[in-house]
Amino acid sequence: MNEAPRAERALLWLVALGVFMQMLDSTIVNTALPAMAAGLGESPLRMQSVVIAYALTMAMLIPASGWLADRFGTRRVYFTAIVLFTLGSLLCGISSSLSQLVAARVLQGVGGAMLLPVGRLAVLRSYPRGEFLKAMSFVTLPGLIGPLVGPTLGGWLVQAISWHWIFLINIPVGLIAALATLRLMPDARSPVGAFDLSGYAMLAMSMVAISLSLDGLSELGLRHATIAVLFLFGMAMFVAYWLHATRVPKPLFPLALFRVPSYRVGILGNLFSRIGSGSMPFLIPLLLQVGLGFTPLEAGMTMIPVALAGMASKRAVVPIVQRFGYRRVLIVNTILVGAAMASFALIGPDQPAWLRIVQLSAFGLVNSLQFTAMNTVTLRDLDGELASGGNSLLSMVMMLSMSFGVAAAGGILSAFTEAFGVERGPAALPAFHATFVSVGLVTMMSAWIFWQLEPKRRYPVPPPADPM
């Protein structure tokens, strides 16, 4: 990538800045949830709507991002995304109630729905396939600074000033990114037809209904019959969309995507393995603060090993995949990710600090490797018209699995806390431990999906090199 033109290198920095904004916001929010709950008069174990509102909005709107980028150009759409995300951050920062905060998070999600997939699409179209893995590794590496800085900075802001300020720090970063977009983002576009509005409506209703049914197990207090109806309605809408896509000439996501073996396995593997991973940023800060009595700053500093290990693993992805291949790496690493999640059941008041650091570092390392390998094997075999739709579907699945993961983890944790009868303090630790084991097992089972990658197929991987 040393030979890449200066404009392409600048593009990588710009997209990485967008990732930084997203990751900084996500990590700060998770660390500050208990403080938000205290300020808003809510239970810290019922605050997942703040996370779900953002993730679900992104998942709903991401399907339109590829069409918008092709229709109006990557530069205009990326600029609009940054503006909306920054405005949403401002509104979050001045919120005085949970309903206001959730509404502002929805606006953030509208911006984020276009920000991440359009940036990835610009990189996909600017770099040849042989250099795509290195380009994506670089884009996600600076973005890991967000998780490194976010939890500690967020904990300090919560203790020193107010939780409102964790959102306001996005504003200067957003202004810089918006100005840089006007100069650095290429205005790539492609001919597009009419938008599949009916298919989009079916898919959006399916995502909302399934997510609400999962969240209804804990936070919304819905009766069991309502939860069952929502879940069945969501599944029916998904089936309706699939049948719709088989008969219309230009569906929202072309079914030809699923005739590409690596994409078919990669997208399903992303969905199910990320359900567990998506719940961890929500569960770990709650465990540390609600179960072990950590302050927000202490909980934020404890998360540093996760980010550092994740950054270190990015440079190892290329040589590891080059030697063992995607199939073997993803099967083994998925099991390791699930085992790392389940190991948090060992955390307790008497656990040595060094062992906790080892657990957090191990999880950060294998989880980061998993994301990079999964994303790359999913996208690398897409050409031409399939690239835009495939990229948008991957981004949608990433956010949808986060929404499902947080909703499911909240429901599982609520069920276990009700069973044990305790919500706070060391007595609540068994409920947290059982939840970590549950999400770890779900993740490990998804290794069977990556088993379906072709064993004799060699996915070319470029030799390791400096990403810039």
In short:
This is Multidrug transporter subunit MdtD. Keywords: Cell membrane, Membrane, Transmembrane, Transmembrane helix, Transport. With 468 residues, the protein is mostly helical.
Give an account of the 3D structure.
- The protein has helices at 6-40, 48-72, 74-93, 98-126, 129-143, 145-160, 165-168, 170-184, 197-215, 224-247, 261-291, 296-302, 304-314, 317-324, 326-342, 353-379, 385-420, 429-445, 447-450.
- The protein is an all-alpha fold and 468 residues long.
- The protein folds into two domains: 6-185 and 252-450, Growth Hormone, Chain: A (Up-down Bundle); 196-251.
- Helix 14 (317-324) crosses helix 15.
- The radius of gyration is 21 Å and the shape is globular.
- Its main location: membrane.
What are the key terms here?
468 residues, Growth Hormone, Chain: A, 2 domains, mainly alpha, globular
Helix- and strand-based class? mainly alpha
Morphology: globular
Alpha-carbon distance between the termini?
5 Å
Please identify the top-level CATH class of the largest domain.
Mainly Alpha
Largest sheet: none
Q: What is the level-2 CATH architecture name of the largest domain?
A: Up-down Bundle
What is the tally of beta strands?
A: 0
- Mean pLDDT over the full residue set: 81
Per CATH, the superfamily of the largest domain is: MFS general substrate transporter like domains
